[in-house]
Design goal:
The chain is α+β, with helices and mostly antiparallel strands. It has helices at about 5-20, 50-65, 115-125, and strands at about 25-30, 35-40, 95-100, 105-115.
Length: about 130
C-alpha cells in the first residue's frame, strides 16, 4: 500500500502546524515508497536551500530504509565511512527525514528542512504523530 494524497495532506498539515508553533519557516516534501513526489510545501520566506534539502532527506530515507537522524554514525568525524559528507545531489545525512510506515510497511517518507537539524527532526516527528 502506498501513501495517498489524503494521508500525505494530513501529515503535511501537522508538519506545518509544528513549524508555525516553533516559529520556523520550513519546506516539507512527502514521497511515496516508489520515490515519487506526492506533496510539497514551501512556507513563505523559507530558504531556497530548504526546498532541495527537504526532498533529499525524504529520498534518502527511502533509498536507505532509515530515518536520516539515525545515519549520523556514517558521518562521524573520527571513523564515519562518509566523514565530511553531509549531503550531495543524491543523498542527505542531515536529520529531518523520516520514514512513513503503515503496520510496519514503508509507504513513503517526509523530509523537513529550514530550521536547525534538531528543529527539522522535531517537526518531522510531530508530523507523523496522528
Amino acid at each position: 500500500m502506498a501513501i495517498n494524497l489524503e494521508k500525505a495532506s494530513q501529515i503535511m498539515t501537522r508538519a506545518r502546524l509544528a513549524s508555525e508553533k516553533m516559529g520556523v519557516l520550513m519546506s516539507f516534501a512527502i514521497f511515496n515508497d516508489k520515490q515519487d513526489l506526492i506533496l510539497f510545501m514551501r512556507m513563505d520566506g523559507s530558504s531556497g536551500e530548504s526546498v532541495r534539502l527537504a526532498q533529499l532527506k525524504a529520498l534518502t530515507c527511502l533509498k536507505l530504509c532509515e530515518n536520516t537522524d539515525n545515519l549520523a554514525y556514517l558521518v562521524n568525524k573520527e571513523n564515519g565511512v562518509l566523514r565530511g559528507i553531509r549531503y550531495d545531489n543524491a543523498i542527505s545525512l542531515i536529520g529531518g527525514g523520516k520514514l512513513i510506515c503503515d503496520n510496519g510497511t514503508i509507504i513513503g517518507a517526509i523530509g523537513v528542512s529550514g530550521g536547525s537539524e534538531t528543529q527539522d527532526i522535531e517537526v518531522a516527528a510531530a508530523a507523523l504523530v496522528s
